[in-house]
Automatic annotation (TrEMBL):
Xref: NCBIfam families: PRK05461.1 (NF003967)
Name of the gene this protein is made from: apaG
Organism: Novosphingobium tardum
Domain ApaG positions: 8-132
Pfam name, any one: DUF525
Domain of life where this protein originates: Bacteria
Protein's UniProt name: Co2+/Mg2+ efflux protein ApaG
SUPFAM superfamilies: ApaG-like
Length: 132
């Protein structure tokens, strides 16, 4: 199955693409829990290697409640991307509302030691109307 990346952001030659899908089988609408899965591809089109060091997410639910998630790496990894390399991972996000959004940034370390804040594009989380 070829995934359609609906959202993308470019920072200094590093492209972050996002595909997001609502998962009704993981959601408990009657209990006020909705769940999405997102697939991220990070592509290094820059001239030097970069390593993903940390992540910072801003998650907003349908009531405007904002939560932040900060941590090392992504899904337990701190991938090194040489020029031309890409890294894919999949994660999920539960919300207490049928709509919300996510956005954020990765901190990457270049081969020369410089740190770069790489944008993760804003993307909406929206359950189908029939799901809630």
């Amino acid at each position: 199955m070829k995934e359609l990346f609906q959202h993308a952001a470019v920072t200094d030659g590093i492209i972050v693409r996002v595909a997001v899908n609502f998962l009704p089988e993981q959601s408990r609408v009657e209990a006020g829990k909705w769940f999405w899965v997102y697939h991220i591809r990070i592509e290094n089109e820059g001239p030097q290697a970069v390593q993903l060091v940390t992540r910072h997410w801003r998650i907003t639910d349908g009531r405007g409640l904002v939560s932040f998630v900060d941590g090392e790496g992504v899904v337990g990894e701190q991938p090194m991307l040489k020029p031309g390399d890409s890294h894919d991972y999949v994660s999920g996000c539960p919300l207490a509302t049928p709509h919300g959004s996510m956005e954020g940034h990765y901190t990457m370390r270049r081969a020369d030691g410089a740190l770069v804040e790489v944008a993760i594009p804003f993307f909406p989380l929206a359950a189908p109307a029939t799901a809630g």
